[in-house]
Specification:
CATH class: Mainly Beta
CATH topology: Jelly Rolls
Low-confidence stretches: 1-26, 268-288
Number of domains: 1
Shape: globular
Structural class: mainly beta
Mean pLDDT: 84
CATH architecture: Sandwich
Order of helices and strands: EEEEEEEEEEEEEEHEEE
């Protein structure tokens, strides 16, 4: 099954933003503080919407990408992994949306490590449909075109863990599936020496690929500008584009390091649940 996901990921809406400070010292690039109080509010603008929230001890404002903007990402306190708050993302039919914190001046170390915990609820649709796709995308938009570095997420219909391969951007099953309605931990490791990325589920490395748009952008991809919580279609057919779904995100962080990410201490302490990963036959679907 061929399926494509949008390549343009960083056309930010006009929400006031304080750009992150340059990467001069601390290894932390973005830290959500687990979306906890007092940094984040469940009543911000009445709904607790993620976009526009700028915690006092944070290094930027959460923004959302342009588009229909029908999906939502709200800070809530009913379903959490750790602490007392998390973000619930509801994907609306036909609306592909992303939320992130734009930064500049990164990386100054070899690796960028993106970590989050995610719980995906199962979506049901007509036979042959996929998605929606929930996860995180990493980008370098410090050029004439937005360059996708890598992505990792879950198909809400099948439970497949998916990533995007170099050059084509095909959404490809990494092998494992995850249980619906359960928290799992995810990580993307961006390696700026080899221009490739590794991806992990519950601390287990499950695959690697070159930077997705490394050969599609003049001069290649050499910077990190944003890692986006993503809720998008998982296939190009009309029925899949119309699929709705829900996922929860917690403990989101981005840091840089001279060491591989699996050798770097986590910025958010906590026990990581380990699940059994059941292998499935890879199904290739492309981005659009």
């Amino acid at each position: 099954m061929i399926r494509k996901i949008f390549a343009v990921t960083s056309a930010w809406t006009l929400v006031a933003v304080a750009a992150a400070s340059s990467a001069s010292a601390a290894s932390i690039i973005v830290d959500s503080h687990g979306f906890e109080q007092p940094q984040f509010s469940t009543t911000f603008l009445g709904t607790g919407q993620l976009e526009g929230q700028t915690p006092a001890t944070f290094n930027g404002t959460w923004l959302r990408t342009k588009g229909l903007g029908l999906s939502t990402a709200n800070v809530e306190s009913s379903v959490v992994d750790t602490g007392s708050q998390a973000v619930v993302v509801n994907r609306a039919a036909g609306s592909n949306d992303r939320w992130g914190v734009p930064v500049s001046g990164y990386p100054s170390d070899r690796y960028v490590c993106i970590e989050w915990s995610m719980r995906v609820e199962q979506s049901s649709g007509p036979t042959g449909t996929f998605g929606p796709y929930f996860g995180v995308e990493a980008n370098d938009d410090d050029s004439t075109s937005v360059g996708l570095l890598g992505s990792l997420g879950v198909d809400a219909s099948t439970g497949e863990v998916l990533y995007q391969v170099q050059d084509t951007g095909f959404l490809t099953a990494a092998g494992p599936t995850v249980a619906f309605g359960a928290w799992n931990d995810y990580m993307i490791e961006l390696d700026y020496f080899t221009h490739s990325y590794r991806f992990f589920v519950n601390n287990v490395a499950i695959g690697t690929s070159g930077f997705v748009d490394q050969n599609n952008i003049s001069g290649g991809l050499n910077e990190f500008t944003d890692a986006d919580i993503t809720a998008v279609q998982a296939a190009g057919d009309a029925a899949s584009m119309a699929m709705v779904g829900t996922a929860f995100f917690d403990n989101f962080s981005v840091q840089q390091s001279p060491l591989p990410c699996d050798a770097v201490p986590e910025p958010v302490a906590g026990l990581l649940a380990v699940i059994g990963l059941a292998g499935v036959a890879a199904k290739r679907r492309a981005r659009a």
